[in-house]
Amino acid sequence: MIAYIENNYVEVISLFLQHIEITLISLIIALIIALPLGVFLAKNAGPAAIVMPFLSVIYTIPSLAMFALLIPVVGLGLKPAIIALVAYSLLILVRNVIAGFRSIDPAVIEAGLGLGLSRWQLFWKIEWVQALPAILGGVRIASVSIIGIAAIASWINAGGLGVILFQGLNENNTAQIVWGTVLVSALALFVNYFLSVLESMALAKSRGEDVK
Fold first, then answer.
1. Using CB atoms within 10 A as the burial measure, which of 4, 13, 110, 156 is most buried?
2. CATH architecture of the domain with residue range 2-206
3. Mean pLDDT on 90-102
4. How far is CA 205 from CA 125, 154, 212, in A?
5. Degrees (nearest 5) of the Cα angle 158, 162, 168?
6. The whole model's pTM is what?
7. Per-residue model confidence (pLDDT) at position 87
């Protein structure tokens, strides 16, 4: 077990960094789409009734099937992996953005308007602060999901820690299988913990508590 890392640590570190890169790129693109879309759908129930079922259908497609569908269109490598991971993340992120903004007490909005805040000030100083805990909860769940599914993306030559797993499975190498699993799990646990801390801080701030 230890010997494998000692002999392959350069490759393992490179694949670990690739996995982080895939996760970050996918999450950033997904957030760029999900945040404005979620805010719009939170305030417009009609379009939400159409968009959310569509996103739910995408989420139910098995990852290998999704990759297989994308290969003829965009080929192998990082591009189909990013497209698939973004698509899988949208349901979680958009749903939580909607939940966050719809959970805001209307009395709080009325109080902000009564203080003379503009719609833009109201959004950033009140609505965003109140919705942020739910949004971060979605980011946390989506991030962990991306980390896990990204391991399968090595099947289409996207790189990442899945390379170690698939090599181990193909060569019946227990050390590779164990290390691949441990590293993916460790990354997911760290990201989950880090974002849960941010989520707790945002929740305390939304309640008007001192954040330390």
1. 156
2. Orthogonal Bundle (1.10)
3. 96
4. 11, 40, 10
5. 130
6. 0.91
7. 95
